[in-house]
Amino acid sequence: MNEPTADVLPERPQALRSRRVVLPGGERPAAVHVADGRIAAITAADEIPPGTLVTDLGELALLPGVVDSHVHINEPGRTEWEGFATATRAAAAGGVTTIIDMPLNSVPPTTSLAALAAKRAVAAGQVAVDVGFWGGIIGADARNLDDLAALHGAGVFGFKAFLAPSGVEEFPHVSMDVLGAAARRTARMGALTVVHAEAPSVLALAPPTVGRAFASWLASRPPAAETEAVAALAALSAASGARLHVLHLAAADALDDVLAARDAGLPMTVETCPHYLTFTAEEVPDGATVFKCAPPIRDSRNLDRLWDGVAQGLFAGIVTDHSPSTPALKQIDAGDFAAAWGGIASVQIGLPAVWTQARARGHTLTDVVGWMCAGPADLVGLAGKGRIAIGADADLVIFDADASFLVEPSMLRHRHPLTPYAGRVLNGVVLATYLRGRRADGDRPPRGRLLER
Predict the structure, then answer these.
(1) 307 near 277, Cβ under 8 Å?
(2) Residue 16 CA neighbour count, 13 Å, CB half
(3) How many CA atoms are closer than 13 Å to the CA of 160, on its beta-carbon side?
(4) pLDDT at 3
(5) Which residues of 209-243 are buried (b: 16+ CB within 10 A; e: fewer)?
(6) What are the annotated GO cellular component locations (predicted)?
(7) What are the two backbone dihedrals, phi and then psi, of residue 406, each rounded to the nearest 5 degrees?
(8) How remote is the C-alpha of 76 from its chain's centroid?
(9) CB proximity list for 206: less than 8 A, separation 6 or greater
């Protein structure tokens, strides 16, 4: 491979040629021509105009950049957990060229115009990939409903709410009544509302988490909490006409309601995450708090059923829910599941994690691109992202689909190199990441943009 190494693609015409270009219609040999940061043409592999600088990738795959619509960057306010510089460098190293930042766990949370302005100000000049922002809906007292229209006008990609406690006091969860009032407003705006869907009434009846046993954490967040919440959201979508999106679905039992909502034509969608498609409860050791997340990783039968849902097209996307914290908050030494922060850090390795499992189940790179690139881009309305198509941004990933690697903490670019994937062999190696035709990975100056809806 004649791998491009320049920070900026040359002024002369440039084309990347591969026998494995993953296009919206499938994988085939092609040449992708880049000009002014966009894809100018897609031709047969041998249709190269004279004077074009050609990078011949051979059998290496050329993918569109991954779009991760579920990332917690935590800055400002909790930059010791993560930050724009570290999170976006990790994203670029993993083939992710666009992320949408969640409205928590920053302080202040992105629940007002002033908070959005503060977040944009601290992000400016730091981001190695393109970054957009979610707004938030908070409080049983409906405290920021009057802020939603202004946030929408300022370009947030939608609004996040929790039905159960979020884990941080400045982002309180909402009742279904408040969510209903918010949904009626977002429906009039045409805005997307994304929801952490666990029913607090079910969680209140579950046994509390105690000590180092993962089984105790699992029992405290039963599947019924998700199924009840998803059913309630489907009813709300039907009543309000609001676009509702279920975040990080872990319980495959809820897929029946997802399928029914789809068949009824409701504007409700759902996502899942690489960790729910990779790990099983049976393999999580007691005290291994790097596996703690909410909802929790469930059993092997549930994992297989989630993959059945993926194969049926029930998910709008697969996104990481990258949510890191400090080793102390993660209770790495004590291994206390009750006290540990819940969140899995994986923005750098989501693509190979999903490809590893997908290939073993007979899926293709075209499938993975649909789930991780085009799907999330379509969810948030970024038509120029997540696909290799004429006019789209030249966000490209050179990917060795047949190589494998051992996940070692030293290779991770996010602030605290803690991840449940450590020590695991994954398939698929990201060799280079381009953002609008420029290299974005490595230690290059950050060239990402702050996006508006």
Answers:
(1) yes
(2) 34
(3) 28
(4) 44
(5) beebebebbbebbbbbbbbbbbbbbbbbbbebebb
(6) cytoplasm
(7) -90, 130
(8) 20
(9) 219, 220, 221, 222, 225
Q: Which token pair is 41?
A: 């043409």
The residue extents of the domains of the chain are 65-380
Question: With b meaning 16 or more CB within 10 Å and e meaning fewer, what string describes 419-453?
Answer: bbbbebebbbbbbbbbbbbbbbbeeeebbbebbeb
Of 453, 444, 452, nearest to 127 by C-alpha is: 444
pLDDT (0 to 100) of residue 1: 37
Burial class (CB in 10 A: 0-12, 13-18, 19+), 348: buried
d(CA 20, CA 45): 10
Whether the Cβ atoms of residue 97 and residue 67 lie closer than 8 Å to each other: yes
Instruction: Find, among 229, 235, 148, 258, the residue nearest to 193 by Cα.
Output: 148
The pair of structure tokens assigned to 251 is 């319980």
Q: Any idea which fold 65-380 has?
A: TIM Barrel (3.20.20)
Tokens 């508006």, residue located? 452
Identity at 128, one-letter amino acid code? A
- Please state, in angstroms and rounded to a whole number, the distance separating the CA atoms of residues 26 and 21: 8
Mean pLDDT by 10 residues, the chain (453 residues): 46 89 97 96 95 94 98 98 98 98 97 98 98 97 95 98 97 97 96 98 97 97 98 97 97 97 96 98 98 98 98 98 97 97 97 98 98 98 98 98 97 96 97 96 95 96
